[in-house]
Amino acid sequence: MRSVSSRWHQWLFLVICSLIQVKAEVLQPTVEKTLVKDAVSKGAVCLDGSPAAYHYDKGFGDGVNNWVVFLEGGGWCGSVEDCAIRFGNFLGSSNHMNNTRVFSGLLDYNKTNNPDFYNWHRILIKYCDGSSFTGDVESVDKATNQHYRGARIFQTIMEELLAKGMKNAKNAILSGNSAGGLAAMIHCDRFRSLLPSTPRVKCLSDGGYFLLDNDGKRGKVLESTFAAVVNLHNSAKMLPSSCTSRKLDPTLCFFPQNLQQYIKTPLFIINSAYDSYQIQFTVIPSAQRADFKENCMPDFNNCSSDQQKMLRDFGAEFVSALPNSNNPSQRGMFVNSCFIHLQISYSTSWTSPLLMVNNKTVAKAFGDWFFERDLCRETVKLQDLPQICRPPPQPAQGQREDPPKRL
Predict the structure, then answer these.
(1) How many helices (H) and strands (E) does the chain have?
(2) CA atoms in the 13 A half-sphere facing the CB of 107
(3) What DSSP designation does 197 have?
(4) Average pLDDT of 11-34?
(5) How, if at all, do strands 30-35 and 267-272 pair?
(6) Backbone angles phi, psi at 101, to 5 degrees
(7) Regarding beta strands 200-206 and 53-57, do their DSSP bridges make them parallel or antiparallel, or are they unpaired?
């Protein structure tokens, strides 16, 4: 009984701390939405043809010459029907986006929460194209009015930011989470090329290391999803030619384990070996998902033997697919064993002691790597299943990623 009481008090303490953190984030100043200038004439539009948008908070103090650009995530749409669903929400139309946004995590303006980047120019690019910012189709479907222009959104917003002063940056980061984390890898060298005079340019991908499924027993959900996206959005030409020129199917160049080896710019990967998004929607069979969510997720000790094996197999496969580079200045990593998907979007996870690897928080590990204070690759040995760690609570605010649609 004493042990149960102790655990209860520990969890109550963590929940209270999380609520305090969430309240603190709500009290932070909001950042206004900016619609892309001349978006329609430049083709920088969402799926429904509305102007693309971003939130921009100016840097100050000794951060005035430093820039961090964040690409928002939100899944993908690979069919006319699934893209049409997004017309009615922020993932396909700027008409449905909030006018203001509270920045947190990597974009937090609070020095305590974000000591390395709090006073940089911080930009959050809204995701409304469904293709990880890779689409580039000139024609518009007259029947559906669908626009596939993700690549033009990225390029046009970069041009606006360069004009606002980013061309004079001393330090710059292209970052993103989930589908945006994948986009940060796809556009990493392109971002570097826009800043030829900037001494330090690096990229950060959070929850974007999507695994090419080599298990023939699974449904290969992501492979079919990415194939549909490449086909519908004409994404192939936005992928690194160094990958596609090797006669690989462009779909395979959408997967980070194939893509990352052709990225020349320094890249930092933040991910869980037990990525909750990938496990729930690509590993657990659809017929078992309800049981997995109800019984296994609340307590991994309650997982069936088959579910335990699926989790362990995925974790081992994920780790084996990570970069093997012996040059940590080019490939940094923060890989833990928490059942979580996103780790840089909220201060509750960005600085959480629950997610630490080698006694470093996510924020500390990335900051040390970026400024080359410590270039060690931060990875954790995969725990036995009962020890898969629980992530800290995250705010309800924030726009979560949709699972892959029916592809």
Answers:
(1) 14, 10
(2) 29
(3) T
(4) 60
(5) unpaired
(6) -145, 140
(7) unpaired
275, 337, 345, 402: the catalytic one is 275
341 is catalytic: yes
User: What distance in Å separates the CA atoms of residue 18 and residue 318, rounded to the nearest whole number?
Assistant: 29
HEC assignment per residue over 284-344: CCHHHHHHHHHHHCCCHHHCCHHHHHHHHHHHHHHHHCCCCCCCCCCEEEEEECECCCCCC
Longest dimension (CA), the chain: 68
Burial of 245 from C-beta contacts in 10 A (0-12 / 13-18 / 19+): exposed
Pick the catalytic residue from 341, 347, 352, 402: 341
Active site residue 213: no
Helices (H), 164-304: 179-186, 188-193, 221-233, 241-244, 256-259, 276-278, 289-291
Per residue, the 3-state secondary structure of 318-332, as one string, reads HHHCCCCCCCCCCEE
**Which one-letter amino acid corresponds to residue 323?**
P
Asked if 334 and 181 count as a contact pair (C-beta separation under 8 A), the reply is no
Q: What is the pLDDT of residue 4?
A: 42
**Helix (H) or strand (E) segment spanning residue 54:** strand 53-57
Read off the pLDDT band of 21 (50, 70, 90). very low
Write the CA distances from 382 to 233, 274, 306, 347, 357, integer angstroms: 37, 9, 18, 25, 11
Do 63 and 121 form a contact (C-beta atoms < 8 A)?
Answer: yes
- Short-list 401, 403, 404, 406, CA closest to 74: 401
239 pLDDT more than 70: yes
- pLDDT band of residue 247 (cuts 50, 70, 90) is low
Catalytic residue, chosen from 94, 131, 178, 345, is 178
Is 178 labeled as catalytic in the residue annotation? yes
Pairing of strands 53-57, 30-35: antiparallel
Residue 124, pLDDT > 60, answer yes
| Amino acid at site 377 | R
What does the pLDDT read at residue 16? 46
**164-221 pLDDT per residue, tens:** 999 999 999 999 999 999 999 999 999 999 999 999 999 999 999 999 977 655 668 8
pLDDT band, very low/low/confident/very high, at 23 (cuts 50, 70, 90): very low
Question: What is the C-alpha separation between 192 and 203, in angstroms, rounded?
Answer: 9
The confidence band for 6, taking pLDDT boundaries of 50, 70 and 90, is very low
